[in-house]
Design brief:
mainly alpha; single chain; about 65% helix; 5 helices; about 120 residues; Multidrug-efflux Transporter Regulator, Chain: A, Domain 2
Length: about 120
Amino acid sequence: MRIGEVARRAGVSVRALRYYEEQGLLPAERSPAGQRHYSSSAVDRVGLIRQLFAAGLASRSVRKVLPSVYSGRVAPGLLEHLEDERARTDERIAELSAARERLDAVIANTRNPPPECRRPRE
């Protein structure tokens, strides 16, 4: 399958497919003219890659996960790596929650400033 067809079927840009290939996530064969050709499973693989990215994994982590998915065997250290990723996600969630609370306080104080912040009327 050529790159344009994979992109269309997978719902991604050609640029995204090139990026996936550069990152070692999506293998492609090259024709003598240098055109990329993908296997029939490429569309499903792109879907999985997108799910892993949507889960917050970086391309280096996706590269670690894919072999286990396709072999059906969990690579040594993979579960620990994924648990570390989840812990980092939990930290980001906590940071964002704290930022939202601070923003809520700013909004509340802007709507109804406390007396010490009100300007005297002239």
